[in-house]
């Protein structure tokens, strides 16, 4: 009986994957530098064949555009997949990857590194993601600790604990900025807090790719338990599922993935909130269908949002977090309008 919906979901996911591949190929050719499509692909081909030559055009394509395009796709995929899991774990359609204060924790760690100054650019490229990642883990630990003190890891308690931790860490971040940020440091911090992929390098590509490769299979493995949790804890436990263990495992997994993504791009909103809703409308509510489709959809959304962010005000660019918010709010309103009168699934 499920052959039809399963086939439809697979076909739609395959179509999205094809569109993503085409989008990657097109996005890398778009930019403020006057490079033709042929020049861009010649440069990419020379690197893939080991015959690259140094030059300004080569640096623009290989060191700036290519890693930025790939980072955008990977971060979008990670945030969207995390959003699917958070909405499933909490049974809350407004949940997103930042619900447990992960964004605020990562921001505090990153802002601390940016304002302290870490010598060379190479050292900063490693210290910034690490500090943001550790900040996200700190937020997760605090949220789960508060929930344990309250005696429950139920969705409501965890969400409330996450909100409290988020507000506390956001206040700490603001205090650090007010006390220490000046001049260029302030602008750098502001850009990071708004969400920006301008600093993408092959290091950020590696960080995002490794995190996604390690965590996504675990999320996919728990698709069936997530479906059971949607029926309620009592129903899930009647099916032999340890709701407490599943929640703890997946909360930690989402924290690891989100922390890694935020560490490379800053806090980019709405990707993990709206993409899961849009995808459910296409492939249904089963998590084995929603997770891969959402990951691809998130990659597409952030890829084109960033392409718009770096070209719309040529030669200046705007933080991609602003673009995702400007696009995400009306899209979310439309999603809510279509969902009116129906149960969230």
UniProtKB/TrEMBL annotation:
It is a multi-pass membrane protein. One of its GO terms (biological process) is siderophore-iron import into cell. SUPFAM superfamilies: ABC transporter involved in vitamin B12 uptake, BtuC. One of its GO terms (molecular function) is transmembrane transporter activity. GO terms for cellular component: plasma membrane. Keywords: Cell membrane, Membrane, Transmembrane, Transmembrane helix, Transport. The chain crosses the membrane at residues 69-86, 98-124, 130-150, 157-181, 201-219, 250-278, 290-308, 320-339. Its main location: membrane. Pfam families: FecCD. The keyword Membrane applies. It is found in: Cell membrane. Belongs to the binding-protein-dependent transport system permease family. FecCD subfamily. PANTHER family: FERRIC ENTEROBACTIN TRANSPORT SYSTEM PERMEASE PROTEIN, PERMEASE OF ABC TRANSPORTER-RELATED. This is Iron complex transport system permease protein. It comes from Demequina mangrovi.
């Amino acid at each position: 009986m499920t052959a039809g919906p399963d086939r439809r979901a697979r076909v739609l996911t395959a179509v999205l994957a094809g569109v993503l591949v085409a989008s990657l190929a097109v996005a890398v050719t778009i930019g403020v530098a006057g490079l033709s499509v042929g020049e861009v692909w010649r440069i990419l081909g020379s690197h893939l064949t080991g015959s690259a030559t140094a030059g300004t055009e080569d640096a623009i394509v290989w060191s700036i555009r290519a890693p930025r395009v790939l980072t955008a796709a990977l971060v979008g995929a990670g945030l969207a997949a995390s959003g699917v899991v958070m909405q499933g774990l909490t049974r809350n359609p407004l949940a997103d990857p930042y619900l447990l204060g992960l964004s605020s924790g990562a921001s505090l760690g990153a802002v601390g590194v940016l304002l302290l100054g870490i010598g060379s650019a190479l050292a900063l490229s490693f210290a910034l993601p690490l500090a943001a990642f550790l900040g996200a883990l700190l937020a997760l630990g605090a949220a789960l600790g508060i929930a344990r003190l309250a005696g429950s890891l139920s969705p409501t308690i965890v969400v409330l604990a996450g909100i409290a931790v988020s507000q506390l860490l956001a206040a700490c971040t603001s205090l650090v900025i007010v006390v220490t940020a000046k001049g260029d440091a302030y602008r750098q911090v502001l850009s990071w807090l708004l969400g920006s992929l301008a600093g993408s390098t092959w290091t950020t590509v590696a960080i995002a790719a490794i995190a996604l490769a390690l965590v996504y299979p675990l999320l996919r493995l728990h698709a069936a338990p997530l479906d059971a949790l949607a029926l309620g804890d009592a129903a899930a436990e009647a099916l032999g599922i340890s709701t407490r263990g599943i929640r703890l495992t997946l909360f930690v997994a989402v924290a690891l993935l989100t922390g890694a993504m935020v560490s490379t791009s800053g806090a980019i909103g709405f990707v993990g909130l709206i993409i899961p809703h849009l995808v459910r409308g296409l492939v249904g509510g089963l998590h084995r269908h929603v997770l891969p489709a959402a990951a691809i959809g998130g990659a597409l959304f952030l890829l084109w949002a960033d392409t718009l962010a770096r070209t719309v005000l040529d030669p200046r660019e705007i933080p991609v977090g602003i673009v995702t918010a400007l696009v995400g709010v009306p899209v979310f309103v439309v999603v809510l309008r279509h969902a009116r009168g129906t149960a969230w699934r």
